[in-house]
Design brief:
Length: 766
C-alpha cells in the first residue's frame, strides 16, 4: 500500500469519525448501498465518501456541488489493479465526470479508469468540453486515475479546466482527443498543480492544437511534472500557449523523466492496412494513422519531411483517423493519387487546422469530402501564419467535393504565401477560399489550373458568399495571379437588396491578375457581378488578360469602392466581356476602367455538348485572340485546363481551354514522330530558366524530373500519360515547393513506363 494512500485513508476515517460522515458502498452485485455511483452521490452530503467496488459503470456522474470523495477500493488498499478494474465509462453520452458547482479542496476523485466520454456543454454555444473530466468553479483533487480514450469536439479531451484550482497526483492522461487540448485544456485563471512526488503521465493525446496541453492566455504560467511525456523537447504541436494573435507565451515549463516516442527525422508512410507498431519508414511497413505519424515525425527546417499516404479512404469510422489534422511545420502530406486518396471527416469537423506551426509545407494528391465547420473554423482547411514572416503553403492536385452545408468556408488561408495548382471544387455548399492581407509588406497568392463548378446551389435558405475573397484587413498588398481557371455555374444565395458576387470578391490593396480564365453562367440574385470590387476595395487593381466572362447574372464586373482618395482600377486586354465596356457597372466616378486593345463582346461559342462544355468550338471568336505580352512575373503553364498544349495555332486563345483544331481534318503539317527518345535543354548553363526539349518515340506514362547532385528529386516537371511526339517544357529554377533552387549542377531524368530512358546534366548559374 502506498504511503500516500494510507495517509489519505487515515484522513478520511478521521474526518468521518469527527463529523459523523457516511461511507456509501457502490457494488453492482447489489451487496452495497447502491448499484450506481450517481445514486451514492445523490444520497451523500459534504464530507461523505462514495466507495466504488470493481466493475464498469456506464455513467456520466456529477458531484452537484458536494464536497465528497468518490474513490475505488484503491484508496483503501493501495492496490493499483483496482484502478483498471473500476471503470467509469461515459458511453459517448457526455463527460464521464463533472465537478463544476463550487466544490472545495476537500473534493476527491481517486482510483478509476475514466474512458469513452464525449464532452458536455456548459453554455448555450452547444460546443462539447471535457471528454473525461469537466472541471469548473472547483478546487478538486484528482489522484491515481487513468484518463484515456475520451473525446470532446471543442476543448479538453481528457480534462477541461475553467475557473478552477485543481491538483493532479499519479494521473495518466493517454490517447484522448479534442479540437483543442487533447490531454488537458486550462482557461480563465485556472491553476493546475502537478504532484512532484507521485508523478503523472501525459502522452499520445491528439488535438487540432495543443495535442497534450493547451493553455489559454488568461490562465497563469504552469509547471508540469510528469514521469512520461510524448517526446523530449516538445514544440507548439504538443504544448500550446499563445496570445490571441498567436505569439508564443513560453509560460509552460515541463519537467519530465521519460519520453514515449523518439522523433524520426525522415519521411513516413501511412496506409489503411498499416499498423502503428510498424516503423513507418517504407511503404512495406506503413503506420496506421496520420495523427500518429504527425506526432512521430520530426519538424526540422533544415530537413523537411513528408508523410506519404497510400490510396484509400481515411476516416474515423473506417480506420480511427482524427480530423482536423494538426499540421507540423516543414512536414508535407502527399497522397498517392488525388482520385483515390480520400480524407473523409464524416461531417464531424474540418480536415486541417493550423494556426501555430512553422508552415512551409505541401499538401498534395488528395480528395477531401464531408468536412464541417463552425464560427471558428473552415469546413476543410484553416491555415494561418499569424505574425510569422515569409511563410508558404503549397496545395497541389487537390479536390474538394460533396461538402454539405455548415457554417464556414472551405478554405481560410491567412497571412501566408499560397500556391494552389491543379485544384477542383465542385458540388459543394460553400464559399471556396478566403485569404487576408499579410502582416508583412507583400503577400503572394498564385492559383494555376483550377476548376470551380456547380457550388452552392442547393441551400438558398442558408445563404452563401462569393467563391473567392481576397484582401480585407488593411494596408499591406496582396498580389494574386489566377491562370487557367474555369469558374462556372456557381450560385450565391443572399437576402434581397444587397450587392453580391458569385465569383471573386476583392477588398483593399489587392493586385489581381486574371489570365486565361473562363468565367461563365454564375448567378447571384441582386446587384453585383461575378467579379466585384467591394465598398472597402480601395487601392485595388484588377488586370484581365485572355479571359472570357460571359453569361453571368446579374453582370460581369461591378466596382463599388467608396474611397475617392484611394480609387480602384480595372484594366482589360484581349478578353471577351459580355456587355462590353458599357456593361461594366462602375458605381462611383473615381474608380477607373481601362478598356484596352482587342477586347470582344460576342458569344464565345462554347462546346456545350462536348466533354468539356466550356471549350471553344471552331467558330469561336476567342481562337488566336489572346496576347503573349503579359506583365513580368506572369508565366503561362505548358498546358491548358484540359491538359492540351497551351498554345495551338498562331497564338494563344482566350479562356482556360486552347482550341486544338478540327480532329477530323488532315493537317498538311503532319506531326513527325521521333525515332529516338531523348532530351536536351537550352540555354545550358542557364539563369533563370531553361527550355527542355523532349522527344518521345513511344507513348506511355512519362515522368520528367529534376534531381540535385545528392540524388534528391527537386522538381517534377511532368508525370502523366503522353503520346509520341516532340514537346518543350520550361524549368524556371524552382522546386516543388515553388522556391528558387541554389546555383549548381542538376540532372534532368526521363522515365517512360517506369524505365529510366535518359539523363542530362544542366547547370544553374546565378
Amino acid at each position: 500500500m502506498k504511503l500516500k494512500s494510507i495517509l489519505l485513508l487515515f484522513v478520511i476515517v478521521s474526518v468521518c469519525s469527527l463529523l459523523n460522515s457516511v461511507i456509501y458502498h457502490i457494488n453492482q452485485d447489489g451487496t452495497g448501498n447502491f448499484t450506481t455511483i450517481q445514486e451514492g452521490i445523490n444520497a451523500s452530503t459534504n464530507s461523505d465518501t462514495i466507495l466504488v467496488y470493481p466493475g464498469t459503470y456506464y455513467e456520466n456522474i456529477n458531484y452537484n456541488g458536494k464536497n465528497i470523495t468518490v474513490a475505488s477500493l484503491y484508496i483503501t488498499t493501495g492496490n493499483e489493479e483496482y484502478i483498471n478494474q473500476t471503470i467509469i465509462d461515459g458511453n459517448q453520452n457526455g463527460s464521464c465526470v463533472r465537478i463544476m458547482s463550487g466544490e472545495d479542496s476537500t473534493t476527491v476523485l481517486c482510483g478509476f479508469t475514466i474512458t469513452n466520454g464525449s464532452g458536455s456543454t456548459y453554455s448555450t454555444s452547444g460546443y462539447l468540453y471535457g471528454g473525461g473530466l469537466l472541471l469548473m468553479n472547483t478546487q478538486a483533487n484528482i489522484s491515481n486515475c487513468e484518463i484515456r480514450n475520451n473525446y470532446a469536439s471543442r476543448r479538453g479531451g481528457g480534462i477541461f479546466c475553467r475557473l478552477s484550482q485543481i491538483s493532479l497526483s499519479g494521473v495518466s492522461i493517454i490517447n484522448n482527443y479534442a479540437g483543442g487540448g487533447g490531454g488537458i485544456y486550462s482557461r480563465e485563471d485556472s491553476e493546475i498543480d502537478f504532484d512532484q512526488t507521485e508523478l503523472c503521465n501525459i502522452y499520445l493525446n491528439y488535438a487540432a492544437k495543443g495535442c497534450e496541453i493547451l493553455k489559454a492566455y488568461s490562465s497563469p504560467p504552469m509547471e508540469v511534472y510528469v514521469d512520461t511525456f510524448t517526446v523530449f523537447e516538445p514544440d507548439g504541436y504538443f504544448i500550446h500557449s499563445t496570445t490571441t494573435t498567436g505569439v508564443p507565451l513560453n509560460d509552460i515549463t515541463l519537467f519530465m523523466q521519460n519520453a514515449k516516442l523518439e522523433p524520426i527525422n525522415n519521411d513516413l508512410y501511412v496506409s489503411t492496412i498499416g499498423d502503428n507498431n510498424n516503423c513507418g519508414l517504407s511503404p512495406d511497413e506503413p503506420l496506421a494513422t496520420i495523427n500518429y505519424a504527425l506526432s512521430l515525425v520530426k519538424s526540422d527546417s533544415l530537413h523537411p519531411n513528408t508523410i506519404h499516404i497510400a490510396d484509400g479512404i481515411y476516416s474515423g469510422s473506417e480506420n480511427n483517423q482524427y480530423f482536423p489534422l494538426n499540421m507540423r511545420g516543414y512536414v508535407s502530406i502527399i497522397g498517392e493519387s488525388m482520385e483515390n486518396t480520400i480524407f473523409d471527416a464524416e461531417n464531424f469537423s474540418p480536415h486541417i487546422y493550423d494556426l501555430y506551426s512553422k508552415l512551409d509545407y505541401s499538401i498534395k494528391n488528395l480528395t477531401f469530402v464531408n468536412g464541417n465547420g463552425d464560427n471558428y473554423t473552415s469546413c476543410c482547411m484553416t491555415i494561418s501564419a499569424n505574425q510569422q514572416q515569409e511563410k508558404f503553403v503549397n496545395l497541389e492536385n487537390i479536390q474538394l467535393t460533396n461538402f454539405p452545408y455548415s457554417i464556414g468556408r472551405l478554405l481560410e488561408i491567412f497571412y501566408v504565401d499560397l500556391y494552389l495548382e491543379n485544384f477542383i471544387s465542385q458540388s459543394n455548399y460553400h464559399t471556396l477560399l478566403r485569404t487576408l492581407n499579410s502582416y508583412r509588406p507583400e503577400q503572394e497568392v498564385i492559383i494555376e489550373n483550377a476548376y470551380i463548378h456547380n457550388n452552392s446551389q442547393y441551400s438558398p435558405q442558408a445563404g452563401s458568399q462569393s467563391q473567392m475573397e481576397f484582401g480585407q484587413l488593411g494596408t499591406n498588398t496582396m498580389n494574386v495571379i489566377i491562370i487557367n481557371m474555369e469558374m462556372t455555374e456557381n450560385q450565391y444565395y443572399s437576402s434581397a437588396g444587397s450587392e453580391t458576387s458569385s465569383g471573386i470578391e476583392i477588398m483593399d490593396n489587392v493586385n489581381l491578375n486574371l489570365v486565361n480564365c473562363t468565367i461563365g453562367n454564375n448567378s447571384s440574385p441582386n446587384n453585383g457581378g461575378v467579379i466585384r470590387i467591394g465598398p472597402g476595395g480601395q487601392n485595388s487593381v484588377i488586370n484581365i488578360y485572355n479571359s472570357i466572362l460571359y453569361g453571368d447574372l446579374p453582370g460581369e464586373i461591378y466596382i463599388d469602392n467608396e474611397f475617392s482618395s484611394n480609387p480602384s482600377t480595372v484594366n482589360i486586354q484581349n478578353s471577351l466581356i459580355a456587355g462590353g465596356y458599357e456593361g461594366i457597372e462602375n458605381v462611383y466616378s473615381w474608380n477607373i476602367v481601362n478598356w484596352m486593345e482587342d477586347n470582344l463582346d460576342e458569344d464565345p461559342c462554347w462546346d456545350v455538348n462536348g466533354d468539356y462544355p466550356y471549350m471553344l468550338t471552331e467558330n469561336s471568336p476567342c481562337i488566336n485572340a489572346g496576347t503573349l505580352d503579359l506583365p513580368t512575373g506572369i508565366e503561362l503553364p505548358e498546358f491548358d485546363l484540359a491538359g492540351n498544349p497551351r498554345i495551338y495555332g498562331e497564338t494563344i486563345d482566350m479562356g482556360a481551354y486552347e482550341y486544338q483544331g478540327d480532329p477530323q481534318s488532315n493537317d498538311e503539317n503532319e506531326i513527325i514522330i521521333p525515332e529516338i527518345t531523348q532530351i536536351s535543354n537550352y540555354p545550358n548553363p542557364f539563369n533563370p530558366s531553361t527550355t527542355i526539349k523532349l522527344d518521345l518515340a513511344e507513348s506511355g506514362r512519362v515522368e520528367l524530373a529534376i534531381y540535385n547532385i545528392k540524388g534528391q528529386k527537386v522538381k517534377t516537371l511532368m508525370d502523366a500519360y503522353s503520346s509520341k511526339g516532340h514537346f518543350e517544357i520550361i524549368w524556371r529554377g524552382i522546386d516543388d515547393n515553388k522556391r528558387s533552387v541554389a546555383s549548381g549542377q542538376y540532372f534532368i531524368k526521363l522515365k517512360v513506363n517506369g524505365e529510366e530512358k535518359t539523363v542530362r546534366k544542366c547547370v544553374l548559374l546565378k
